[in-house]
UniProtKB/TrEMBL annotation:
It comes from the Bacteria. This is Uncharacterized protein.
Length: 134
C-alpha cells in the first residue's frame, strides 16, 4: 500500500490470479473523490472514458496526448501519476514492467526519481509516461 498527496494505492489479486492496483483519490475533507483500477501494465478507468468528473473548483486534466513522454532526469510537466518505461530490448525491462517502483506521483515541476537501472548509464534510457492526473 502507498499513500501520497491525497491518493492511496492498494494491491489486489483477482480470483484469476491477476495483479491489480486500486487507486483511491480523496478530497481535502477525506471523502473518496474517485476510484480507479489499474491492471498491471494496462490502464483501465472505471468510467470507460479516462476523464475525472469535473467540478466547479477543479481544472480539466491534460489529455495524455498533450503530455507525452518525459525523459529521465527532467521535471514533471503536470501533476499526476507516471509510469517508468524502458526500451523493450533492455535486459531489466521485464523486471521493471512488473515492479511497483515504476509508478510514481509527481507534482508539476518535481524531478523524476532515478529508477535504479543497471548499468547506471542506462538510467538515461528511462522515459516517464503520464497515466493520470489528480
Amino acid at each position: 500500500m502507498i499513500h501520497a498527496q491525497g491518493i492511496a494505492l492498494y494491491q489486489i489479486k483477482s480470483p484469476l490470479g491477476e495483479d491489480w492496483i486500486a487507486q483511491c483519490a480523496f478530497t481535502e475533507e477525506g471523502r473518496l473523490q474517485y476510484l480507479t483500477f489499474v491492471k498491471m501494465h494496462e490502464w483501465k478507468p472505471l468510467n470507460g472514458e479516462g476523464e475525472n468528473p469535473q467540478t466547479a473548483d477543479t481544472l480539466p486534466s491534460p489529455k495524455l496526448s498533450e503530455i507525452g513522454l518525459s525523459a529521465a532526469g527532467t521535471l514533471a510537466p503536470a501533476n499526476g501519476w507516471y509510469e517508468a518505461l524502458l526500451p523493450a530490448g533492455h535486459p531489466m525491462q521485464p523486471f521493471y514492467a512488473k515492479s511497483e517502483v515504476r509508478l510514481v506521483y509527481r507534482g508539476q515541476g518535481e524531478l523524476f526519481p532515478k529508477l535504479g537501472v543497471m548499468p547506471a548509464d542506462d538510467e538515461d534510457l528511462v522515459q516517464w509516461a503520464w497515466i493520470r492526473g489528480t
